[in-house]
UniProtKB/TrEMBL annotation:
PROSITE patterns: HTH_TETR_2 (PS50977)
Name of one Pfam family that matches: TetR_N
Transmembrane parts of this sequence: none
Record feature DNA-binding region, as residue ranges: 10-29
InterPro entries: BetI_C (IPR039538), Homeodomain-like_sf (IPR009057), HTH-type_TetR-like_transc_reg (IPR050109), HTH_TetR (IPR001647), Tet_transcr_reg_TetR-rel_C_sf (IPR036271)
Protein's recorded name: Transcriptional regulator
Top-level taxon of the source organism: Bacteria
GO MF, any single term: transcription cis-regulatory region binding
Keywords: DNA-binding, Repressor, Transcription, Transcription regulation
Amino acid sequence: MLERGLASTRVADIAKATNVSGGLIHYHFATKDDLITAMLRATSETEVRRLREIIAGPGTAVQRLDRVLRYYIPSSRSDQSWILWLDAWALGVREPHVREILLELEGGWIEILAEVISEGVQKGEFFCDDPMGAAERLDGMLDGLVVRYTLHSGAMSRKRLLEHARIAATHEVGIPRSAFPA
């Protein structure tokens, strides 16, 4: 699916790549849409579970928020997970089963960001009247910057993207830029 894209991949392509019969795939998944839905849902659940592990770790609210920002940003322009999600966003415009999973994933990210921000406010580390709104804005900004980073080679480095994310986060949670690592 990463080679051909979600819409262009056939069950026969998946069978060949995984060295199984198309019949076996159809035994488990009635349609290609069912297969894509299962794959995206499993990937989404894995990402949200990993994000929950990240925020459960030790450290201040700033450290935990910084770990979330660093996790969100792909390690390279060829990050397979991000390429998959970019493709899914394009497909989700027309395919309700894909859109539903994307909204679930987005909701999970926003919920976790809001949780980190709310806990920071409760501990007096952050100053934010609307943690959910802050999380939505950070999530949307990150999506846009990551798309730009992934699609436009040389337009922005990962380091610069992370700096933009940290600056936006400081504005949202009411702390100075110096609170984040250099």
